[in-house]
Amino acid sequence: EHRMISIAGEPVQIFGVVDLCVAEDHRGQGHAGRLLEALEAHARECGIDALVLMADDPRLYRRHGYSLRPGPATWLRIDEHKSYGVAEESLQDLMIKPLKGELPEGPVDVLGHLF
To answer: Which end of the chain is less enclosed by CB atoms within 10 A, N or C?
Structure first.
């Protein structure tokens, strides 16, 4: 998902990874890593500042240069085609991979729904 987010009040252009899935019988063969590499190459061609995702298991993403970015965040609560307002909580599973130098430190405003 291509969008802008805000980190510490600074606009950041991102690709948000919504779901990365590999069929069970094809796991462990490097397919997910190749998908991440292709996404990164495309993001760099497009001038994207960072890649962002939420990870239950961060091991794959850490191997590909993503870092956990726990801390305060703001986003829209949306579920089953209904809005539930704005959430302001700490996210513990947010991962970011900067593509253009360092990103600001501070609260993240996703400027929309979570990935």
So the answer is: N
Q: Provide the CA 26 distance to its chain's centre, in angstroms.
A: 24
β-bridge partners, 51: 15, 97
CB-based contacts of 19: which residues, under 8 Å, 6+ apart?
none
Task: State the Cα–Cα distance between residues 20 and 26, nearest whole angstrom.
Answer: 13
Question: What is the value of pTM for the model shown?
Answer: 0.93
Separation between Cα atoms, residue 115 and residue 22, nearest integer Å:
18
Taking the CB of residue 8, how many other CB atoms lie within 10 A of it? 12
Q: Say how far residue 5 (Cα) sits from the centre of its chain.
A: 10
CB 75 within 8 A of CB 112: yes
